[in-house]
Write a structure and sequence with these properties.
- By secondary structure, the protein is an alpha/beta fold.
- It has eight helices and 19 strands.
- It folds into two domains: 195 residues, FAD/NAD(P)-binding domain; 144 residues, D-Amino Acid Oxidase, subunit A, domain 2 (D-Amino Acid Oxidase, Chain A, domain 2, 2-Layer Sandwich), CATH 3.30.9.10.
- Helix 1 packs parallel to helix 8.
- The protein is elongated.
- The two termini are 32 Å apart.
- The structure holds flavin-adenine dinucleotide.
- The site of flavin-adenine dinucleotide (FAD) has 44 residues, from helix 1, helix 2, strand 13, strand 17 and helix 8.
- It catalyses: glycine + O2 + H2O = glyoxylate + H2O2 + NH4(+).
- This is glycine oxidase.
- One of its GO terms (biological process) is thiamine biosynthetic process.
């Protein structure tokens, strides 16, 4: 096999994968009609293995921890090949319960975080407001999570794209319509042509689009992906108030989750809802996000509204991604659901290691791409 990889999909997963292939000495072809137009364009960008932990998802925890561990190296290496910013920030995260019921929710979560060996520091409201004076005095409980960081997904994805193109990647601006000739004589068909890929590694990293490419496994597609929509709002902090907050602020307000992510350019991303219908920003959801965010940080009322968007997370039935071999030269890497920005470092690294016959973290054995085929 040549040291050549064809990566289908130029979201955060495909782009990070292209980059890691180049690091391993591969030539790379990226196929995407419109890179960075999917979930990556809308995402918040929290790299938050602790604050994002969910009950009953123990198999995700080691994946998230490992990806957070190797993220700084990915950022550092990408920055050697591009002058574009990544929006990577290590200021940490505050997790807040707004009222007393939200506070006791947080106490239960802290117990669970200890069980999962995810460290947090409990702060008094006074300590939290000393660190972030814009926090409302009407908050009930706060913990600080130093290890939960963030990138700006649009910036980081653009930086990755710039880096891989400067290192010589070929970009075919086309949509893949079929992957034919399963094992080992793959042909990748596009709207405007085709590529014989029998001597390349092909990586299917097309986010939700991966489930719509027909027939590549015994005449069917085994991936069960569904869109899980999320509204997210962007606002600009006026100069005299900037920075309004320096850490990511996540909270529960009357049991509804909300987060506020400060960016280097003086904007805030406020997100995100989760629903399976209506692929456009929903007015009621935008209203609720802004009301809940303002409950935690009242100064948000003074900001300039920029946009409300709605992205589709590539969800799987068990919330774990699909990562693994799907033929002698086809690897699947998709279904990263709520955590694709965080898991991009691990996913990209693992795919390249698989293609070289090297060991990958044992936790990835739960991510078999065929586990939902029936
Ligand atoms: C509102 C919101 C907030 C989020 N916040 C976070 C967060 O804070 N932290 C976190 O870790 N994750 C977050 N996520 C999840 C994260 O955005 C996704 O898991 C991640 O972006 C998935 O990346 P991807 O590259 O697999 O898919 P995408 O970004 O959707 O990219 C897929 C790419 O494939 C291309 N494509 C599709 N079909 C084809 C085809 N047939 N041929 C060629 N190309 C094709 C598309 O053009 C697109 O560029 C959030 C998501 C949303 C919606």
């Amino acid at each position: 096999m040549n040291k050549h990889a064809i990566v289908i999909g130029g979201g955060i997963i495909g782009l990070a994968t292209c980059f890691e292939f180049q690091e391993a000495g591969f030539d790379v072809t990226l196929i995407d009609p419109d890179p960075i137009s999917g979930a990556t364009h809308h995402a918040g960008g929290m790299l938050a293995p602790t604050a994002e932990v969910q009950y009953q998802q123990q198999e995700l925890v080691p994946l998230m921890k490992e990806s957070a561990r190797i993220y700084p190296s990915l950022i550092e290496r990408v920055s050697q090949y591009t002058s574009l910013p990544t929006g990577y920030r290590t200021d940490g995260t505050l997790l807040i319960g707004a009222d007393r019921a939200d506070g006791s929710h947080l106490v239960d979560l802290i117990k669970y975080l200890h069980v999962e060996d995810l460290p947090v520091d409990v702060l008094t409201t006074r300590q939290a407001r000393a660190a972030e004076p814009a926090l409302s005095p009407r908050i009930s409980k706060v913990v600080s999570i130093d290890g939960d960081h963030q990138v700006s997904p649009r910036l980081f994805a653009r930086a990755l794209f710039d880096a891989v193109i400067h290192r010589g990647a070929e970009h075919i601006q086309d949509q893949v319509t079929a992957i034919n000739g399963y094992d080992p004589c793959l042909t990748v068909s596009m709207r405007n042509g085709e590529r014989v890929a029998s001597k390349s590694i092909v990586v299917l990293a097309a986010g939700l689009g991966a489930a719509t490419i027909p027939g590549w496994f015994e005449g069917s597609n085994p991936l069960k992906l569904r869109p899980v929509y999320g509204d997210i709002v962007r606002v600009r902090v006026p100069e005299q108030l900037n920075p309004l907050v320096t850490k990511v602020v996540r909270g529960f307000v009357e049991d509804r989750p909300v987060y506020i992510i400060p960016r280097d350019d003086g904007t805030l991303a406020i997100g995100a809802t989760s629903r399976e219908d209506q692929p456009h920003p929903r007015t009621g959801a935008v209203y609720t996000l802004l009301r809940d965010a303002t409950r935690l940080v009242p100064g948000i009322e003074e900001t300039e509204f920029i946009e409300a968007t709605c992205g589709a997370r590539p969800g799987t039935p068990d919330d774990l991604p699909y990562v693994g071999w799907a033929g002698s030269n086809l690897i699947v890497s998709t279904g990263y659901f709520r955590h694709g920005i965080l898991l991009a470092a691990l996913g990209a690294n693992a795919v390249v290691r698989m293609s070289q016959g090297r060991e990958v973290p044992a936790s990835l054995s739960a991510c078999d791409p065929f586990r939902h085929k029936n």
